[in-house]
Amino acid sequence: MLEDLTTEASSPGAWPAAYPQGYAVVDVETTGLARDDRIISAGVYQLDARGEVEDHWYTVVDPERDPGPVWIHGLTSESLEGAPLFADIAGEFATRLEGRVLVAHNAVFDWQMIAREYARARAQAPVKQRLCTIALSKELALPLPNHKLESLAAHFGVVQRRAHHALDDARVLAEVFRPSLRTAAARGVRLPLLECLPLTEWTDRPRLGQPAGHGGGHRPAGWRTSRKRPACPYPNPGRYAPDRPLKQGMRVAFSGDTSVERDLLEDRATEAGLHVATSISRLTSLLVTNDPDSGTSKVVKARQYGTPVVDEAAFGQLLGDVEPASEG
Q1: What rounded mean pLDDT belongs to the chain?
Q2: I want to staple 178 with a disulfide (CB 3.0 to 4.6 A). Which of 50, 51, 168, 189 is the partner?
Q3: Are 18 and 35 in contact (CB under 8 A)?
Q4: Which pLDDT band holds residue 273 (cuts at 50, 70, 90)?
Q5: 31 DSSP β-pair partners
Q6: Long-range contacts of 29-33 (CB under 8 A, 24+ apart)
Q7: pLDDT at 227 (0 to 100)
Q8: Residue/partner pairs of 230-234 with CB below 8 Å, 24 or more apart
Q9: Alpha-carbon dihedral 240, 242, 243, 249, rounded to 10 degrees
């Protein structure tokens, strides 16, 4: 209930001036984890600058397909009958997000699902930054056995009533975020904010063995769309050198949000004769990321190995003039 979140008075003392002025604590339940899966419910708690609740909102969404792991989220096809499409609630959802930092547990997942839904609706979510409560708990060095939401809730004495229900998960997250935020403020900790790039170019891919737009039936847990690419036919010429063109065979990895859907970028890299790598090693020629200070594992390894880093815009320009592989 709302009053559970509003009884604690704002903590006294100075508040970091650089901290955001408001937050939207979000949880979305989905039909699965793949890029073409859909949102079936969303919960949002709006918080002020110090973590006090201002409002909350919840909706179910017709995913236009099988709801997926019902045993997790509890939403059956029957219970979703008559639910609005995402396009129908996109405007209301946007009003809950606008001008606020999106807060979520494993925020990159929630943001990517939201960004794709808005792309399908030919719109953009009005979100500029996100904050992951996993990253924040690491910044605060909280003594957690793992980084699951239930562990974070137990640490702060927050009771989960309906796990995997979007509104209750958002409530729990709001309750654990508030003391985390205040601890960070008291210590003068820099919040781990990341930029959210809305998708400006995106396309749906049909499911395996099904025409585009077909919802399909039940899938086992862990189902993923197959994106097996042909092996790169060219040898690796080594690392990318600044002010030089890319060369066919170079190993390119991607990290973080991109304004063009990741699969499209990877397809273009493959078509240009580059090797798309899923991880960073000493053999990686180039890392493409819009946030080199994000602290992701790929960014950290690129820094360790001295792997060159460019942003999405620079990579797009480089793709226009890829040097052919050496003969022989």
Answers
A1: 89
A2: 51
A3: no
A4: very high
A5: none
A6: 29/72, 29/73, 29/75, 29/164, 29/165, 29/166, 30/63, 30/68, 30/113, 31/63, 31/65, 31/66, 31/67, 31/68, 31/69, 32/68, 32/69, 32/219, 32/223, 33/109, 33/224
A7: 59
A8: 230/270, 232/270, 232/273, 232/274, 232/275, 232/276, 233/273, 234/273, 234/275, 234/325
A9: 10
Please state, in angstroms and rounded to a whole number, the distance separating the CA atoms of residues 116 and 100.
Answer: 19
Judged by average pLDDT, the poorest of 5-14, 29-38, 297-306 is 5-14
Q: Angle at which helices 166-187 and 149-156 pack, to 10 degrees?
A: 60
Nearest alpha-carbon partner for 56 in 174, 228, 186, 181: 174
> Could you report how far apart the first and last alpha carbons of the chain are, in Å?
70
Q: Determine what percent of the chain is predicted with pLDDT higher than 70.
A: 88
Q: What is the DSSP pairing of strand 193-195 with strand 22-30? A: unpaired
